[in-house]
Specification:
By secondary structure, the protein is α+β, with helices and mostly antiparallel strands. It is built from 1 helix and 4 strands, in the order E-E-E-E-H. This is DUF397 domain-containing protein.
Length: 68
């Protein structure tokens, strides 16, 4: 199996991102999900196992990371 790297990924920015440059981009790779700073597209990317990324999304949608 060929492992895709963040440099050959198709990056997506959230439709809720504003034009202020404070955005992240996500790429769905073969065996991981990659996350990077949209201001630094050649910089480092964080790689997450699918299960961890899915758990993060469920928690975010459920308000787990909301300031109280």
């Amino acid at each position: 199996m060929t492992r895709q790297t963040p440099s050959d990924a198709h990056w997506k920015k959230s439709s809720r991102s504003s034009a202020n440059g404070q955005c992240v981009e996500v790429a769905d790779l073969v065996d991981v999900v990659a996350l990077r700073d949209s201001k630094d597209p050649v910089g480092p990317a964080l790689l997450f196992h699918r299960e961890g990324w899915t758990n993060f999304l469920v928690g975010a949608k459920g308000g787990q990371f909301t300031k109280r």
